[in-house]
Design goal:
Layout: E1 2-5, H1 16-23, H2 31-49, E2 56-62, E3 69-71, E4 76-85, E5 91-93, E6 99-102, E7 108-112, E8 128-134, H3 145-160
Helix pairs in contact: 1-3, 2-3
Length: 189
């Protein structure tokens, strides 16, 4: 199973002015650096939580239909399309009436609609593609404050500590902050 990020979010959960205020930075000489840190730290938070923060388009790629298609990086907002290669190798788009989205679960799932079954696919890798949007929403105010606080702490840390780490030690840069992500983590059991 592969998921591919198709689009980046239109905004970041933490804006440049917010990050600069947290880092106690005046002026514009570090704007490019801080902008890069915002994106890197957001992606790190998303990776650690297995969750999308701001509306982003993803694509699940499978070799064939599974009984249920697991859509990673929730909260799943909508299905853009569900395409597959039919038995003749021709790409088809499945009618949305033929499947149901479980957006309440984290991760989300696509399953055949009642009385329906997944179609047969061409025997080739990457024959099924489910494109979907996920995230808390399109604006930063929809992201939980605890996650934004984690981001701010890490942006500030990386802004101030640009050099090498102590050799012989593996330590999270801010171990006391890790619990701030728990609210948004996808827990798989």
């Amino acid at each position: 199973m592969t998921i591919v990020r198709i689009t980046e979010p239109a905004v970041e959960p933490v804006s440049l002015p917010e990050a600069k205020l947290w880092c106690k930075v005046d002026g514009t000489e570090d704007d490019a650096l801080i902008t890069g840190l915002i994106k890197a730290v957001r992606r790190s938070a998303e990776h650690l939580m297995q969750r999308t923060l701001i509306t982003t388009t993803w694509e699940l790629v499978r070799d064939a239909f599974d009984p249920q298609l697991r859509l990673e990086m929730p909260k799943i907002l909508s299905v853009v399309s569900l395409k597959y290669l039919d038995v003749n190798g021709v790409q088809q788009t499945l009618d949305p009436a033929d499947y149901v989205l479980d957006a309440d679960s984290s991760p989300g799932y696509l399953v055949p609609a009642y009385g329906k079954a997944w179609p047969s696919t061409y025997g080739q890798i990457n024959a099924v593609r489910a494109r979907y949007t996920a995230g808390y929403g399109a604006t930063a105010d929809l992201v939980p404050e605890s996650i934004k606080a984690w981001m701010q702490l890490h942006i500030e840390h990386y802004h101030k500590n640009r050099g090498a780490a102590v050799i012989g030690t593996i330590v999270s840069p801010l171990p006391y902050a890790e619990g701030l992500l728990d609210e948004g983590r996808v827990w798989l059991f």
